[in-house]
Amino acid sequence: MTSDVFPGPVGAPPGAASAILSFGPLTAAPGPVRFVEGFESFADLVEREGAVPTELAEDFPALWRFIAEHPIIADSAALAESAARFLGNAIALAHPAATWRATPDLEVGTNTRSIPVAGLLQGILAHPERLDDFREMLASWEQDDLDDQEMQALTRDLPEPALIVPPVDYRRPTLPRREYADDEGRIIRYGSRWAGGAPPEDAYSRESHPERFEPLRLVVDALVDHLRSGYETEVREEGGPEGARRIVLEPPTGAPIALTVTGPCVEVEAGALFRAIIPSCTCDACDETAESAADELERTLLAVAAGGLRERFPVGRRAWQLTQLVSLGGEGRSSSSGPAPELPEEVREQKAAVLRDLDDGWWPAWPLRAAPSA
Q1: Percent of the chain predicted with pLDDT > 70
Q2: What's the distance, CA 214 to chain centroid?
Q3: For the chain, give me the number of helices (H) and strands (E)?
Q4: What pLDDT is stored for residue 336 in this prediction?
Q5: Counting CB atoms within 10 angstroms of each CB, which of 89, 175, 331, 366 has the fewest?
Q6: Which residue has the higher pLDDT, 84 or 186?
């Protein structure tokens, strides 16, 4: 089906035909949908108001202003749905790589970002002044896609590093089990309090019982003892910011590690630029536990010492940082990319020089400590 408004075939949105049974020969799965049908009611409104649908489709700021000036759109669910589809088609026209998907709401986007069109429509009606912010996002989208493609190429089909671990396995210390109650005296089941559903909105700004992460200090001590006994590394304690505890592990070869224990969190610095805060968020919505935070802390430190850390910097047109971590025990490989931390230019060049000397960015494993002679 063709359209007089958008330059290309118009099809059903993703998922619309999922309940249709077919008894004919199997055919190939449909390809990505760039433009969806169902925008005609909104196009009729545009014409009644003296505007031209094709011109609004090609002029996103004008389309934004038209929607903002017609709050009547929200009075009809059918008209709002039609306007949202027109809006998504206009985004696909502005960014030719964008396609429609259902997740479960209708969205239009690429690998780097996906925009729920119904939510965007509501946002335009509620906050028409945010047009410039959205235009900036559209202007940077293509470069974000190029960066994503470049990062994927750097992480695709890489051989797994040969991880080197001590002969004695790490064992987590027994963590104390404590119960915490809410304001009404009910026991909070951290880790499963939302039962697979969405947390309430106010949970994102609420932080109850951060003291539940205090057992992480036991995990820090156990990990430091394990790494010191299994690998050759110097371990020293330093004064951290505002009196926080800071532990530095410096092997003769391999990525150094620094741990700063402050409040409920542990900040991990490793290699040249790797940074992580564990747990990354202590709000009620995230529902972290001391055990889940310990999992991440152990996974990170044991992987770094074993030779599972890869860092590349600067990468691509934006001189981004690429980090990969290969975990022990088959958990797999995690990757992240983005702007490097703000550092003086001299320090940034020193970090880049260190990473250039590595084998494709892989830090070697720490040398194992020799077994004591009998």
Answers
A1: 93
A2: 26
A3: 9, 13
A4: 77
A5: 331
A6: 84
Cis peptide before 159 (omega within 30 of 0): no
Cβ atoms 306, 165 nearer than 8 A: yes
Task: Please name the amino acid found at residue 156.
Answer: R
Query: Which amino acid does the sequence have at 357?
Result: D
Buried b (16+ CB within 10 A) or exposed e, 280-290: eebbbbebbbb
Distance separating alpha carbons of residues 334 and 31, to the nearest angstrom: 29
Residue 17 reports pLDDT greater than 90:
no
CA nearest to 266, candidates 249, 245, 286: 245
Give me the pLDDT at residue 240, please: 73
Q: Are 284 and 210 in contact (CB under 8 A)?
A: no
Residues 172, 292 contacting (CB under 8 angstroms): no
Residue 109: strand pairing partners: 99, 114
Nearest-10 crossing angle of helices 77-94, 60-68: 160
Instruction: Name which of 12, 146, 11, 35 is nearest 92 in CA terms.
Output: 35
Burial of 193 (0-12, 13-18, 19+ CB in 10 A): middle
What is the widest separation between alpha-carbon atoms in the chain?
Answer: 93
Q: Which residue has the higher pLDDT, 313 or 318?
A: 313
- If you average pLDDT over residues 63-88, what whole number do you get? 96
- Strand ranges for the chain from DSSP E: 10-11, 35-36, 99-102, 106-109, 114-116, 234-239, 245-250, 257-262, 265-270, 274-278, 309-315, 320-326, 333-338
Q: For the residues 252-260, what does the mean pLDDT come to?
A: 97
The distance of Cα 52 from the centroid of its chain, to the nearest Å, equals 39
> Which pTM value belongs to this model?
0.67
Two tokens, residue 201: 């909105």
- Name which residue leads in pLDDT, 240 or 314: 314
Q: At what angle do helices 77-94 and 40-48 cross, to 10 degrees?
A: 90
